Protein backbone atom coordinates (compact mmCIF):
# COMPACT_ATOMS: atom_id res chain seq x y z
CA UNK A 1 0.00 0.00 0.00
CA UNK A 2 3.01 2.31 0.45
CA UNK A 3 3.20 2.83 -3.31
CA UNK A 4 -0.55 3.32 -3.76
CA UNK A 5 -1.61 6.82 -4.90
CA UNK A 6 -2.92 9.19 -2.22
CA UNK A 7 -6.38 9.48 -3.78
CA UNK A 8 -6.79 5.70 -3.65
CA UNK A 9 -5.78 5.51 0.02
CA UNK A 10 -8.07 8.43 0.93
CA UNK A 11 -10.98 6.89 -0.99
CA UNK A 12 -10.48 3.64 0.89
CA UNK A 13 -10.47 5.52 4.21
CA UNK A 14 -13.61 7.60 3.46
CA UNK A 15 -15.63 4.70 2.12
CA UNK A 16 -14.59 2.35 4.93
CA UNK A 17 -15.45 4.92 7.60
CA UNK A 18 -18.85 5.65 6.03
CA UNK A 19 -19.74 1.99 5.49
CA UNK A 20 -18.88 1.08 9.09
CA UNK A 21 -20.12 4.10 11.05
CA UNK A 22 -23.25 5.25 9.16
CA UNK A 23 -25.21 1.95 9.35
CA UNK A 24 -24.26 1.71 13.03
CA UNK A 25 -25.53 5.24 13.64
CA UNK A 26 -28.82 4.52 11.87
CA UNK A 27 -29.22 1.27 13.81
CA UNK A 28 -28.89 3.28 17.04
CA UNK A 29 -31.62 5.64 15.81
CA UNK A 30 -29.25 8.60 15.42
CA UNK A 31 -29.62 9.07 11.65
CA UNK A 32 -27.14 9.11 8.78
CA UNK A 33 -25.90 12.69 9.27
CA UNK A 34 -24.57 11.96 12.77
CA UNK A 35 -22.94 8.84 11.34
CA UNK A 36 -21.09 10.84 8.68
CA UNK A 37 -19.98 13.47 11.22
CA UNK A 38 -18.78 10.78 13.62
CA UNK A 39 -16.89 9.05 10.80
CA UNK A 40 -15.17 12.35 10.00
CA UNK A 41 -14.15 12.88 13.61
CA UNK A 42 -12.82 9.33 13.78
CA UNK A 43 -10.54 9.59 10.74
CA UNK A 44 -9.65 13.29 11.13
CA UNK A 45 -6.65 14.97 12.78
CA UNK A 46 -8.18 14.67 16.26
CA UNK A 47 -9.21 11.03 15.81
CA UNK A 48 -7.02 8.39 14.23
CA UNK A 49 -5.27 11.02 12.13
CA UNK A 50 -5.71 9.07 8.90
CA UNK A 51 -6.48 12.22 6.86
CA UNK A 52 -4.59 15.50 7.09
CA UNK A 53 -5.70 17.74 4.19
CA UNK A 54 -9.10 18.55 5.68
CA UNK A 55 -9.52 21.95 3.99
CA UNK A 56 -8.99 20.54 0.48
CA UNK A 57 -11.52 17.79 1.11
CA UNK A 58 -14.05 20.30 2.47
CA UNK A 59 -13.77 22.45 -0.67
CA UNK A 60 -14.32 19.40 -2.88
CA UNK A 61 -17.16 18.07 -0.74
CA UNK A 62 -19.00 21.40 -0.92
CA UNK A 63 -19.92 20.32 -4.44
CA UNK A 64 -22.43 17.97 -2.78
CA UNK A 65 -24.34 21.04 -1.56
CA UNK A 66 -24.15 22.46 -5.11
CA UNK A 67 -25.70 19.29 -6.57
CA UNK A 68 -28.38 19.30 -3.89
CA UNK A 69 -29.42 22.86 -4.78
CA UNK A 70 -29.49 21.91 -8.47
CA UNK A 71 -31.91 19.06 -7.70
CA UNK A 72 -34.03 21.36 -5.53
CA UNK A 73 -34.18 23.81 -8.44
CA UNK A 74 -35.40 21.01 -10.74
CA UNK A 75 -38.46 20.67 -8.49
CA UNK A 76 -39.33 24.37 -8.81
CA UNK A 77 -40.74 25.66 -12.06
CA UNK A 78 -40.04 29.38 -12.71
CA UNK A 79 -43.68 30.27 -12.13
CA UNK A 80 -43.67 28.58 -8.72
CA UNK A 81 -40.38 30.25 -7.80
CA UNK A 82 -41.84 33.63 -8.77
CA UNK A 83 -44.77 32.93 -6.46
CA UNK A 84 -42.25 32.37 -3.64
CA UNK A 85 -40.50 35.73 -4.12
CA UNK A 86 -42.23 37.33 -1.13
CA UNK A 87 -41.46 34.48 1.31
CA UNK A 88 -37.85 34.34 0.09
CA UNK A 89 -37.11 38.05 0.51
CA UNK A 90 -39.60 38.69 3.30
CA UNK A 91 -39.07 35.77 5.69
CA UNK A 92 -35.45 35.30 4.62
CA UNK A 93 -34.41 38.89 5.27
CA UNK A 94 -36.32 38.90 8.56
CA UNK A 95 -34.45 35.80 9.78
CA UNK A 96 -30.97 36.94 8.73
CA UNK A 97 -31.31 40.52 9.96
CA UNK A 98 -33.01 39.62 13.24
CA UNK A 99 -30.52 36.85 14.14
CA UNK A 100 -27.53 38.98 13.12
CA UNK A 101 -28.79 41.96 15.13
CA UNK A 102 -29.31 39.88 18.28
CA UNK A 103 -25.91 38.16 18.04
CA UNK A 104 -24.24 41.51 17.32
CA UNK A 105 -25.90 42.98 20.41
CA UNK A 106 -24.70 40.09 22.58
CA UNK A 107 -21.16 40.44 21.20
CA UNK A 108 -21.02 44.18 21.87
CA UNK A 109 -22.45 43.67 25.35
CA UNK A 110 -19.68 41.14 26.03
CA UNK A 111 -17.06 43.77 25.14
CA UNK A 112 -15.99 42.38 21.76
CA UNK A 113 -14.72 44.86 19.10
CA UNK A 114 -17.55 45.92 16.80
CA UNK A 115 -15.87 44.58 13.65
CA UNK A 116 -15.35 41.13 15.21
CA UNK A 117 -18.90 41.14 16.57
CA UNK A 118 -20.36 42.13 13.20
CA UNK A 119 -18.48 39.47 11.20
CA UNK A 120 -19.31 36.83 13.81
CA UNK A 121 -22.98 37.86 13.79
CA UNK A 122 -23.24 37.76 10.00
CA UNK A 123 -21.54 34.34 9.81
CA UNK A 124 -23.47 32.78 12.69
CA UNK A 125 -26.82 34.07 11.35
CA UNK A 126 -26.51 31.64 8.41
CA UNK A 127 -27.78 28.07 8.64
CA UNK A 128 -26.72 24.74 7.17
CA UNK A 129 -28.49 24.27 3.84
CA UNK A 130 -27.10 20.75 3.56
CA UNK A 131 -28.44 19.48 6.89
CA UNK A 132 -31.71 21.41 6.81
CA UNK A 133 -32.80 20.37 3.32
CA UNK A 134 -31.66 16.80 3.96
CA UNK A 135 -33.83 16.58 7.09
CA UNK A 136 -36.79 18.33 5.45
CA UNK A 137 -36.57 15.83 2.60
CA UNK A 138 -36.20 12.76 4.84
CA UNK A 139 -39.28 13.80 6.84
CA UNK A 140 -41.34 14.69 3.74
CA UNK A 141 -41.68 18.25 5.03
CA UNK A 142 -40.69 20.09 1.86
CA UNK A 143 -44.33 20.47 0.76
CA UNK A 144 -45.51 21.60 4.20
CA UNK A 145 -45.68 25.22 5.38
CA UNK A 146 -42.56 24.81 7.51
CA UNK A 147 -40.68 23.18 4.64
CA UNK A 148 -41.59 25.98 2.23
CA UNK A 149 -40.69 28.65 4.80
CA UNK A 150 -37.40 26.92 5.64
CA UNK A 151 -36.49 26.56 1.98
CA UNK A 152 -37.29 30.22 1.31
CA UNK A 153 -35.09 31.36 4.19
CA UNK A 154 -32.20 29.08 3.19
CA UNK A 155 -32.38 30.31 -0.39
CA UNK A 156 -32.28 33.93 0.80
CA UNK A 157 -29.21 33.10 2.89
CA UNK A 158 -27.42 31.96 -0.27
CA UNK A 159 -28.32 35.30 -1.84
CA UNK A 160 -27.37 37.23 1.32
CA UNK A 161 -23.94 35.62 1.40
CA UNK A 162 -22.99 37.71 -1.65
CA UNK A 163 -23.30 41.16 0.00
CA UNK A 164 -21.85 39.74 3.23
CA UNK A 165 -18.67 38.72 1.42
CA UNK A 166 -18.62 42.07 -0.40
CA UNK A 167 -18.78 43.87 2.95
CA UNK A 168 -15.75 42.09 4.46
CA UNK A 169 -13.04 44.01 2.54
CA UNK A 170 -14.62 47.30 3.58
CA UNK A 171 -14.43 46.26 7.21
CA UNK A 172 -10.84 45.12 6.78
CA UNK A 173 -9.45 48.21 5.07
CA UNK A 174 -11.43 50.95 6.74
CA UNK A 175 -13.40 53.84 5.34
CA UNK A 176 -10.50 55.62 3.59
CA UNK A 177 -9.55 52.60 1.48
CA UNK A 178 -13.19 51.92 0.76
CA UNK A 179 -13.51 55.43 -0.64
CA UNK A 180 -10.50 54.78 -2.85
CA UNK A 181 -12.30 52.06 -4.75
CA UNK A 182 -13.27 53.68 -8.00
CA UNK A 183 -16.82 53.84 -9.19
CA UNK A 184 -15.65 52.40 -12.52
CA UNK A 185 -14.27 49.26 -10.83
CA UNK A 186 -17.51 48.75 -8.93
CA UNK A 187 -19.56 49.24 -12.09
CA UNK A 188 -17.43 46.73 -14.00
CA UNK A 189 -17.78 44.19 -11.21
CA UNK A 190 -21.56 44.66 -11.17
CA UNK A 191 -21.73 44.36 -14.97
CA UNK A 192 -19.72 41.15 -14.84
CA UNK A 193 -22.14 39.66 -12.30
CA UNK A 194 -25.20 40.75 -14.28
CA UNK A 195 -23.65 39.40 -17.49
CA UNK A 196 -22.95 35.97 -16.02
CA UNK A 197 -26.44 35.65 -14.49
CA UNK A 198 -28.05 36.84 -17.74
CA UNK A 199 -25.90 34.37 -19.68
CA UNK A 200 -27.04 31.50 -17.49
CA UNK A 201 -30.69 32.51 -17.84
CA UNK A 202 -30.57 33.02 -21.61
CA UNK A 203 -28.37 29.98 -22.15
CA UNK A 204 -30.74 27.87 -20.08
CA UNK A 205 -33.67 29.03 -22.17
CA UNK A 206 -32.09 28.87 -25.61
CA UNK A 207 -29.16 26.46 -25.58
CA UNK A 208 -29.48 23.85 -22.81
CA UNK A 209 -32.51 21.97 -24.11
CA UNK A 210 -31.24 21.62 -27.70
CA UNK A 211 -27.84 20.58 -26.33
CA UNK A 212 -29.33 17.93 -24.02
CA UNK A 213 -31.58 16.74 -26.87
CA UNK A 214 -28.56 16.33 -29.15
CA UNK A 215 -26.67 14.40 -26.47
CA UNK A 216 -29.71 12.23 -25.71
CA UNK A 217 -29.98 11.28 -29.40
CA UNK A 218 -26.54 9.67 -29.15
CA UNK A 219 -28.22 7.06 -26.92
CA UNK A 220 -25.18 6.73 -24.67
CA UNK A 221 -26.41 7.03 -21.05
CA UNK A 222 -22.92 7.56 -19.63
CA UNK A 223 -22.39 10.60 -21.87
CA UNK A 224 -25.72 12.07 -20.78
CA UNK A 225 -24.64 11.58 -17.16
CA UNK A 226 -21.31 13.28 -17.93
CA UNK A 227 -23.16 16.13 -19.63
CA UNK A 228 -25.42 16.54 -16.57
CA UNK A 229 -22.42 16.84 -14.27
CA UNK A 230 -20.63 19.13 -16.73
CA UNK A 231 -23.63 21.43 -16.77
CA UNK A 232 -23.62 21.83 -12.98
CA UNK A 233 -19.82 22.13 -12.73
CA UNK A 234 -19.66 24.76 -15.48
CA UNK A 235 -22.37 26.95 -13.97
CA UNK A 236 -20.87 26.62 -10.49
CA UNK A 237 -17.47 27.66 -11.87
CA UNK A 238 -18.99 30.68 -13.64
CA UNK A 239 -20.69 31.82 -10.45
CA UNK A 240 -17.52 31.42 -8.42
CA UNK A 241 -15.58 33.35 -11.08
CA UNK A 242 -17.72 36.44 -10.44
CA UNK A 243 -17.74 35.94 -6.67
CA UNK A 244 -21.28 34.57 -6.37
CA UNK A 245 -22.52 31.45 -4.60
CA UNK A 246 -21.91 28.23 -6.55
CA UNK A 247 -24.97 26.67 -4.92
CA UNK A 248 -27.10 29.64 -5.98
CA UNK A 249 -25.96 29.25 -9.59
CA UNK A 250 -26.71 25.53 -9.58
CA UNK A 251 -30.15 26.25 -8.14
CA UNK A 252 -30.81 28.77 -10.91
CA UNK A 253 -29.81 26.19 -13.54
CA UNK A 254 -32.15 23.66 -11.99
CA UNK A 255 -35.07 26.10 -12.11
CA UNK A 256 -34.40 26.81 -15.78
CA UNK A 257 -34.58 23.06 -16.54
CA UNK A 258 -37.58 22.37 -14.27
CA UNK A 259 -39.95 22.42 -17.25
CA UNK A 260 -37.59 20.43 -19.47
CA UNK A 261 -38.48 16.98 -20.77
CA UNK A 262 -35.12 15.82 -19.40
CA UNK A 263 -35.88 16.82 -15.82
CA UNK A 264 -36.45 13.29 -14.51
CA UNK A 265 -33.41 11.87 -16.26
CA UNK A 266 -31.24 14.66 -14.85
CA UNK A 267 -32.54 13.88 -11.37
CA UNK A 268 -31.87 10.17 -11.80
CA UNK A 269 -28.32 10.76 -13.07
CA UNK A 270 -27.25 13.29 -10.44
CA UNK A 271 -28.98 11.89 -7.33
CA UNK A 272 -26.29 9.22 -6.58
CA UNK A 273 -23.46 11.76 -6.91
CA UNK A 274 -25.34 14.19 -4.66
CA UNK A 275 -25.77 11.55 -1.97
CA UNK A 276 -22.12 10.51 -2.03
CA UNK A 277 -20.75 14.06 -2.07
CA UNK A 278 -23.11 15.21 0.67
CA UNK A 279 -21.90 12.29 2.77
CA UNK A 280 -18.31 13.34 2.04
CA UNK A 281 -19.24 16.93 2.98
CA UNK A 282 -20.52 15.84 6.39
CA UNK A 283 -17.39 13.69 6.89
CA UNK A 284 -15.25 16.74 6.07
CA UNK A 285 -17.20 18.86 8.57
CA UNK A 286 -16.50 16.24 11.24
CA UNK A 287 -12.81 16.27 10.37
CA UNK A 288 -12.69 20.09 10.46
CA UNK A 289 -13.70 20.37 14.12
CA UNK A 290 -10.66 21.77 15.93
CA UNK A 291 -10.72 19.93 19.24
CA UNK A 292 -7.53 21.77 20.20
CA UNK A 293 -9.50 25.01 20.46
CA UNK A 294 -12.26 23.14 22.26
CA UNK A 295 -9.87 21.60 24.80
CA UNK A 296 -8.10 24.93 25.34
CA UNK A 297 -11.32 26.82 26.14
CA UNK A 298 -14.08 24.26 26.83
CA UNK A 299 -16.16 26.63 28.94
CA UNK A 300 -16.07 29.47 26.42
CA UNK A 301 -16.80 27.06 23.55
CA UNK A 302 -19.85 25.65 25.33
CA UNK A 303 -21.04 29.17 26.15
CA UNK A 304 -20.65 30.42 22.54
CA UNK A 305 -22.23 27.35 20.90
CA UNK A 306 -25.18 27.13 23.27
CA UNK A 307 -25.48 30.92 23.35
CA UNK A 308 -25.80 31.53 19.63
CA UNK A 309 -28.05 28.46 19.24
CA UNK A 310 -30.33 29.84 21.97
CA UNK A 311 -30.37 33.39 20.56
CA UNK A 312 -31.18 32.16 17.05
CA UNK A 313 -33.77 29.69 18.36
CA UNK A 314 -35.65 32.47 20.17
CA UNK A 315 -35.68 34.67 17.06
CA UNK A 316 -36.64 31.84 14.68
CA UNK A 317 -39.36 30.44 16.94
CA UNK A 318 -40.85 33.93 17.15
CA UNK A 319 -40.73 34.11 13.37
CA UNK A 320 -42.43 30.68 13.15
CA UNK A 321 -45.28 32.00 15.32
CA UNK A 322 -45.65 35.08 13.12
CA UNK A 323 -45.80 32.79 10.07
CA UNK A 324 -48.47 30.73 11.87
CA UNK A 325 -46.62 27.48 11.21
CA UNK A 326 -48.26 24.36 12.69
CA UNK A 327 -47.18 23.90 16.31
CA UNK A 328 -45.92 20.36 15.65
CA UNK A 329 -43.55 21.65 12.95
CA UNK A 330 -42.09 24.61 14.84
CA UNK A 331 -39.44 22.77 16.94
CA UNK A 332 -37.86 21.05 13.91
CA UNK A 333 -38.07 24.26 11.85
CA UNK A 334 -36.43 26.24 14.69
CA UNK A 335 -33.63 23.76 15.33
CA UNK A 336 -32.68 23.32 11.67
CA UNK A 337 -32.35 27.08 11.14
CA UNK A 338 -30.71 27.77 14.52
CA UNK A 339 -27.57 25.73 13.79
CA UNK A 340 -24.55 27.24 12.07
CA UNK A 341 -24.03 26.77 8.35
CA UNK A 342 -21.33 25.72 5.93
CA UNK A 343 -21.19 29.24 4.45
CA UNK A 344 -19.99 30.54 7.81
CA UNK A 345 -16.70 28.74 7.11
CA UNK A 346 -16.33 30.85 3.95
CA UNK A 347 -17.23 34.09 5.74
CA UNK A 348 -14.76 33.56 8.59
CA UNK A 349 -11.98 32.49 6.19
CA UNK A 350 -12.58 35.48 3.90
CA UNK A 351 -12.59 38.04 6.73
CA UNK A 352 -8.81 38.16 6.99
CA UNK A 353 -6.62 38.80 10.04
CA UNK A 354 -7.23 42.58 10.04
CA UNK A 355 -10.88 41.99 10.94
CA UNK A 356 -10.93 38.55 12.52
CA UNK A 357 -7.75 37.36 14.28
CA UNK A 358 -6.76 33.81 13.24
CA UNK A 359 -7.38 32.42 16.74
CA UNK A 360 -10.89 33.94 16.81
CA UNK A 361 -11.65 32.66 13.30
CA UNK A 362 -10.54 29.15 14.28
CA UNK A 363 -12.66 29.35 17.43
CA UNK A 364 -15.77 30.42 15.48
CA UNK A 365 -15.27 27.76 12.80
CA UNK A 366 -15.09 25.11 15.53
CA UNK A 367 -18.24 26.54 17.15
CA UNK A 368 -20.15 26.34 13.86
CA UNK A 369 -18.95 22.78 13.20
CA UNK A 370 -19.96 21.72 16.72
CA UNK A 371 -23.42 23.24 16.22
CA UNK A 372 -23.78 21.20 13.02
CA UNK A 373 -22.78 18.11 15.01
CA UNK A 374 -25.17 18.93 17.85
CA UNK A 375 -28.25 19.68 15.74
CA UNK A 376 -28.88 16.07 14.57
CA UNK A 377 -28.41 14.90 18.17
CA UNK A 378 -30.86 17.54 19.38
CA UNK A 379 -33.24 16.43 16.63
CA UNK A 380 -33.21 12.90 18.03
CA UNK A 381 -33.90 14.31 21.50
CA UNK A 382 -36.79 16.37 20.08
CA UNK A 383 -38.35 13.29 18.52
CA UNK A 384 -38.04 11.20 21.67
CA UNK A 385 -38.89 13.61 24.46
CA UNK A 386 -40.17 17.01 23.31
CA UNK A 387 -42.51 16.47 20.36
CA UNK A 388 -44.61 13.69 21.99
CA UNK A 389 -45.30 15.94 25.00
CA UNK A 390 -46.11 18.93 22.81
CA UNK A 391 -48.55 16.84 20.84
CA UNK A 392 -50.18 15.58 24.02
CA UNK A 393 -50.67 19.07 25.41
CA UNK A 394 -51.48 20.83 22.15
CA UNK A 395 -55.01 22.07 21.66
CA UNK A 396 -54.64 21.13 18.00
CA UNK A 397 -53.70 17.55 18.90
CA UNK A 398 -53.56 15.62 15.65
CA UNK A 399 -54.81 12.07 15.94
CA UNK A 400 -52.28 9.51 14.77
CA UNK A 401 -53.05 5.87 14.10
CA UNK A 402 -52.22 3.83 17.19
CA UNK A 403 -54.65 0.89 16.85
CA UNK A 404 -54.89 -1.29 13.71
CA UNK A 405 -57.76 -0.28 11.44
CA UNK A 406 -60.01 -2.67 9.52
CA UNK A 407 -61.93 -0.60 6.92
CA UNK A 408 -62.15 -2.04 3.42
CA UNK A 409 -61.16 1.31 1.92
CA UNK A 410 -57.96 3.24 2.79
CA UNK A 411 -57.54 6.75 1.33
CA UNK A 412 -54.06 8.29 1.24
CA UNK A 413 -54.41 12.05 0.87
CA UNK A 414 -57.63 13.88 1.73
CA UNK A 415 -57.46 17.00 -0.40
CA UNK A 416 -60.03 18.04 -2.96
CA UNK A 417 -59.74 14.71 -4.82
CA UNK A 418 -59.69 12.34 -1.84
CA UNK A 419 -62.52 14.17 -0.07
CA UNK A 420 -65.00 13.49 -2.89
CA UNK A 421 -64.21 9.78 -2.79
CA UNK A 422 -64.44 9.75 1.02
CA UNK A 423 -67.76 11.60 1.06
CA UNK A 424 -69.18 9.24 -1.54
CA UNK A 425 -68.19 6.19 0.54
CA UNK A 426 -69.62 7.78 3.71
CA UNK A 427 -72.89 8.56 1.92
CA UNK A 428 -73.21 4.85 1.15
CA UNK A 429 -72.43 3.90 4.76
CA UNK A 430 -69.03 2.42 3.91
CA UNK A 431 -66.29 3.00 6.53
CA UNK A 432 -62.95 4.38 5.33
CA UNK A 433 -59.55 4.96 6.91
CA UNK A 434 -57.98 8.27 5.86
CA UNK A 435 -54.31 9.31 6.08
CA UNK A 436 -53.07 12.85 5.41
CA UNK A 437 -49.69 14.44 6.11
CA UNK A 438 -50.76 18.11 6.16
CA UNK A 439 -51.54 19.26 9.74
CA UNK A 440 -53.67 22.18 8.53
CA UNK A 441 -55.77 19.87 6.33
CA UNK A 442 -56.25 17.39 9.17
CA UNK A 443 -57.30 20.10 11.62
CA UNK A 444 -59.68 21.75 9.14
CA UNK A 445 -61.39 18.47 8.22
CA UNK A 446 -61.83 17.51 11.88
CA UNK A 447 -63.84 20.71 12.34
CA UNK A 448 -66.26 19.34 9.73
CA UNK A 449 -66.54 16.04 11.58
CA UNK A 450 -64.22 13.90 9.47
CA UNK A 451 -61.94 11.42 11.21
CA UNK A 452 -58.64 11.88 9.42
CA UNK A 453 -55.45 10.38 10.82
CA UNK A 454 -52.25 12.41 10.72
CA UNK A 455 -49.46 10.44 9.08
CA UNK A 456 -47.15 9.99 6.13
CA UNK A 457 -48.52 7.32 3.80
CA UNK A 458 -45.03 6.56 2.46
CA UNK A 459 -44.24 4.90 5.80
CA UNK A 460 -44.78 1.16 5.61
CA UNK A 461 -45.56 0.84 9.32
CA UNK A 462 -48.40 3.41 9.05
CA UNK A 463 -49.85 1.65 6.01
CA UNK A 464 -49.87 -1.61 7.95
CA UNK A 465 -51.60 0.01 10.92
CA UNK A 466 -54.09 1.70 8.59
CA UNK A 467 -55.13 -1.77 7.44
CA UNK A 468 -53.65 -1.76 3.94
CA UNK A 469 -52.87 -5.49 4.18
CA UNK A 470 -56.55 -6.45 4.61
CA UNK A 471 -58.23 -3.57 2.76
CA UNK A 472 -59.93 -4.33 -0.55
CA UNK A 473 -59.08 -0.93 -2.04
CA UNK A 474 -56.37 1.64 -1.37
CA UNK A 475 -56.93 5.05 -2.96
CA UNK A 476 -53.77 7.04 -3.72
CA UNK A 477 -55.02 10.64 -3.84
CA UNK A 478 -51.89 12.53 -2.71
CA UNK A 479 -50.91 15.66 -4.62
CA UNK A 480 -47.19 14.98 -5.03
CA UNK A 481 -46.28 12.72 -7.98
CA UNK A 482 -43.14 11.21 -6.43
CA UNK A 483 -44.93 10.51 -3.16
CA UNK A 484 -47.81 8.93 -5.08
CA UNK A 485 -45.47 6.57 -6.95
CA UNK A 486 -43.63 5.71 -3.72
CA UNK A 487 -46.92 4.70 -2.06
CA UNK A 488 -47.88 2.60 -5.08
CA UNK A 489 -44.51 0.81 -5.01
CA UNK A 490 -44.90 0.07 -1.29
CA UNK A 491 -48.40 -1.31 -1.71
CA UNK A 492 -47.53 -3.40 -4.78
CA UNK A 493 -44.53 -4.91 -3.00
CA UNK A 494 -46.00 -5.49 0.46
CA UNK A 495 -49.78 -5.81 -0.08
CA UNK A 496 -50.22 -7.44 -3.52
CA UNK A 497 -53.82 -8.44 -2.75
CA UNK A 498 -54.97 -4.83 -2.30
CA UNK A 499 -56.46 -3.12 -5.35
CA UNK A 500 -55.11 0.37 -6.08
CA UNK A 501 -57.19 3.27 -7.37
CA UNK A 502 -54.99 6.26 -8.09
CA UNK A 503 -55.20 9.92 -8.95
CA UNK A 504 -52.95 10.98 -11.84
CA UNK A 505 -51.75 14.58 -11.93
CA UNK A 506 -51.05 14.47 -15.67
CA UNK A 507 -50.50 12.08 -18.56
CA UNK A 508 -46.87 11.36 -17.62
CA UNK A 509 -47.95 10.45 -14.08
CA UNK A 510 -50.71 8.25 -15.56
CA UNK A 511 -48.14 6.42 -17.69
CA UNK A 512 -45.86 5.87 -14.68
CA UNK A 513 -48.81 4.40 -12.77
CA UNK A 514 -49.54 2.09 -15.71
CA UNK A 515 -45.88 1.00 -15.66
CA UNK A 516 -46.51 -0.16 -12.09
CA UNK A 517 -49.60 -2.15 -13.06
CA UNK A 518 -52.16 0.37 -11.78
CA UNK A 519 -55.03 0.00 -14.25
CA UNK A 520 -57.53 2.11 -12.30
CA UNK A 521 -55.93 5.54 -12.55
CA UNK A 522 -57.85 8.68 -13.45
CA UNK A 523 -56.45 11.99 -14.62
CA UNK A 524 -57.71 14.47 -12.08
CA UNK A 525 -59.20 17.12 -14.40
CA UNK A 526 -60.03 15.03 -17.46
CA UNK A 527 -63.74 14.35 -16.87
CA UNK A 528 -64.50 17.82 -15.49
CA UNK A 529 -62.73 19.42 -18.46
CA UNK A 530 -64.90 17.38 -20.84
CA UNK A 531 -68.03 18.68 -19.15
CA UNK A 532 -66.75 22.24 -19.47
CA UNK A 533 -66.03 21.60 -23.13
CA UNK A 534 -69.64 20.48 -23.63
CA UNK A 535 -70.86 23.69 -22.01
CA UNK A 536 -68.66 25.78 -24.31
CA UNK A 537 -70.14 24.04 -27.38
CA UNK A 538 -73.68 24.63 -26.10
CA UNK A 539 -72.97 28.34 -25.54
CA UNK A 540 -71.73 28.48 -29.14
CA UNK A 541 -75.12 27.21 -30.29
CA UNK A 542 -74.66 23.45 -30.54
CA UNK A 543 -77.71 21.34 -29.61
CA UNK A 544 -77.12 19.66 -26.22
CA UNK A 545 -77.22 16.13 -27.67
CA UNK A 546 -74.57 17.02 -30.29
CA UNK A 547 -72.34 18.66 -27.66
CA UNK A 548 -72.65 15.55 -25.48
CA UNK A 549 -71.87 13.24 -28.41
CA UNK A 550 -68.84 15.35 -29.37
CA UNK A 551 -67.49 15.17 -25.82
CA UNK A 552 -68.02 11.40 -25.65
CA UNK A 553 -66.28 10.89 -29.01
CA UNK A 554 -63.34 13.05 -27.91
CA UNK A 555 -63.17 11.07 -24.64
CA UNK A 556 -63.11 7.79 -26.53
CA UNK A 557 -60.34 8.89 -28.91
CA UNK A 558 -58.29 10.42 -26.08
CA UNK A 559 -58.43 7.25 -23.99
CA UNK A 560 -57.57 5.18 -27.05
CA UNK A 561 -54.53 7.35 -27.79
CA UNK A 562 -53.43 7.21 -24.14
CA UNK A 563 -53.38 3.41 -24.32
CA UNK A 564 -51.55 3.39 -27.66
CA UNK A 565 -49.05 6.02 -26.53
CA UNK A 566 -48.07 4.19 -23.35
CA UNK A 567 -45.28 2.10 -24.95
CA UNK A 568 -43.82 5.23 -26.56
CA UNK A 569 -43.92 7.85 -23.79
CA UNK A 570 -40.30 7.38 -22.68
CA UNK A 571 -39.09 8.20 -26.21
CA UNK A 572 -40.17 11.81 -26.58
CA UNK A 573 -39.53 12.07 -30.32
CA UNK A 574 -41.64 8.99 -31.12
CA UNK A 575 -44.32 10.04 -28.65
CA UNK A 576 -44.65 13.53 -30.18
CA UNK A 577 -44.81 12.05 -33.68
CA UNK A 578 -47.51 9.59 -32.64
CA UNK A 579 -49.44 12.36 -30.87
CA UNK A 580 -49.47 14.51 -34.01
CA UNK A 581 -50.65 11.61 -36.15
CA UNK A 582 -53.28 10.63 -33.60
CA UNK A 583 -54.58 14.19 -33.31
CA UNK A 584 -54.82 14.54 -37.09
CA UNK A 585 -56.70 11.24 -37.40
CA UNK A 586 -59.07 12.20 -34.60
CA UNK A 587 -59.82 15.61 -36.16
CA UNK A 588 -60.42 14.00 -39.57
CA UNK A 589 -62.74 11.36 -38.10
CA UNK A 590 -64.71 13.90 -36.10
CA UNK A 591 -65.00 16.11 -39.20
CA UNK A 592 -66.45 13.16 -41.16
CA UNK A 593 -68.95 12.46 -38.36
CA UNK A 594 -70.01 16.13 -38.26
CA UNK A 595 -70.54 16.14 -42.02
CA UNK A 596 -72.59 12.93 -41.78
CA UNK A 597 -74.77 14.41 -39.02
CA UNK A 598 -75.39 17.56 -41.04
CA UNK A 599 -76.26 15.47 -44.11
CA UNK A 600 -78.76 13.43 -42.08
CA UNK A 601 -80.25 16.57 -40.60
CA UNK A 602 -80.83 18.05 -44.09
CA UNK A 603 -82.47 14.84 -45.30
CA UNK A 604 -84.78 14.66 -42.28
CA UNK A 605 -82.88 12.03 -40.28
CA UNK A 606 -82.40 12.61 -36.53
CA UNK A 607 -80.26 10.87 -33.92
CA UNK A 608 -82.97 11.43 -31.33
Description:
The chain is mainly alpha-helical and about 600 residues long. It has 26 helices and 6 strands. A 6-stranded parallel beta sheet has the order 3-2-1-4-5-6, sandwiched between helices. Strand 5, helix 23 (about 505-515) and strand 6 (about 520-525) form a beta-alpha-beta unit.
Computed structural class: mainly alpha
Distinct helical segment count: 26
The N- to C-terminal Cα distance equals 89 Å
Largest sheet: 6 strands, parallel
Rg estimate, integer Å: 28 Å
Name of the top-level CATH class of the largest domain: Mainly Alpha
State the CATH topology of the largest domain: Na+/H+ antiporter like fold
- The number of domains is 3
Q: Give me the CATH architecture of the largest domain, please.
A: Up-down Bundle
Q: Return residue spans where pLDDT drops below 50 for at least 5 consecutive residues.
A: 174-181, 391-396
Rough outline: globular
How much helical structure, as a percent, in the residues? over 70%
Mean pLDDT over the full residue set? 79
Strand numbers in spatial order across the main sheet: 3-2-1-4-5-6
What's the β-strand tally?
Answer: 6
Write the layout of secondary structure elements.
Elements: H1 6-27, H2 32-43, H3 54-61, H4 63-74, H5 78-83, H6 85-109, H7 114-124, H8 129-138, H9 145-180, H10 183-217, H11 221-241, H12 246-256, H13 263-288, H14 291-296, H15 298-322, H16 330-338, H17 342-351, H18 358-393, E1 409-412, H19 416-427, E2 432-436, H20 439-447, E3 453-454, H21 460-465, E4 473-476, H22 481-494, E5 499-504, H23 507-515, E6 520-523, H24 526-539, H25 544-565, H26 572-602
Parallel strand pairs: 1-2, 1-4, 2-3, 4-5, 5-6
Amino acid sequence: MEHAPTWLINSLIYLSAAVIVVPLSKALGLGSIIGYLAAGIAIGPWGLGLVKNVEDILHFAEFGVVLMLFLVGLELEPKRLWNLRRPIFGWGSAQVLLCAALILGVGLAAGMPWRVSLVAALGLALSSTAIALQVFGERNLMRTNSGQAGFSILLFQDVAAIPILALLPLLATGDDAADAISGTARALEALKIVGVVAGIVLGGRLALRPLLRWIALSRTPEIFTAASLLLVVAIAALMQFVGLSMALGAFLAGVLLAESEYRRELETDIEPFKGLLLGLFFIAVGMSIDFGVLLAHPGWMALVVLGFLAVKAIAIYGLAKLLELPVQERPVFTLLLAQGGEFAFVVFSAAGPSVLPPATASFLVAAVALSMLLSPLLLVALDKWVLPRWSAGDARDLEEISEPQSANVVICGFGRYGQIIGRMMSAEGLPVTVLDHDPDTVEGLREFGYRVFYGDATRLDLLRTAGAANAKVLVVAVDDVEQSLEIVDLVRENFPGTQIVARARNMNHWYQLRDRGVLMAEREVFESSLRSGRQVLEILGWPPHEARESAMRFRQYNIQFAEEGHPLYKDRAQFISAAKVGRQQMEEQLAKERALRHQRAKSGWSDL
